[in-house]
Amino acid sequence: MSESLLPPHGGFRKLRSFCTAQLVYDGTVIFCNRFIDRRSRTNDQMVQAARSGVQNIAEGGLASATSKETELKLTNVARASLGELLLDYEDFLRQRGLCQWAPDSREALAVRKGYLSDRSDKSDKPDRSDPYALLTASSEVAANTLICLINQASSLLRNQIRQLEQDFLAHGGLRERMTRARLEARGTSSDQSDMSDWSNKITAPSCPKCGKPRRQRTARTGPHAGQPFWGCTGYPDCKGIRSVQK
Length: 246
Known about the structure:
Helices cover about 55% and strands about 5% of the residues. It is mostly helical. The protein has two domains: about 10-175; about 195-245, no CATH class.
């Protein structure tokens, strides 16, 4: 068999989208503990939305071996959950009269610069549990920082979904792999069953119906089971057959 039915899977921890979603999740827990009433539904909803972003990426990665459809759906659910969380942070700022940073503002660019440098060099982060100083930042700075991180995660997930779609179109899913493996196995079996002492002694005749060359095969069912015959290579379009004369 040329390819494994179950390809490598489960490497979600190495995905940048997963790592970024984890930053958002951890940051949201800090933010809600500091600025959102723990008894409110908003606190629970924001934490759950952030958790959903992480967990659905992980679950999609684990399910990818047997269902590309499930992986695509769960990855998109993760992106949707982060979109819901983004609205919560925007609402927080708007309802309190706080400023939301423009995408090209100095503050937003600084967060993105720190995010990009964090990808290659973590030595300048003194506290890995709070790399963006959310434990001490003001509510406005903390909310805007998390908005920037959510946008980064959403962009990564959008690209990831696009890549999953391309991979599916190019390679298919489990059903396609199983079909290819089965056809390959049947083809090998057919080649072996068609080999006989006659193949080296008899020249394959052309099909009188379509003119294509014939191929020696062995009947598997019916009254002539086990007997060799000449079958047209144009099958199933042409069903011309002839018995092998010893």
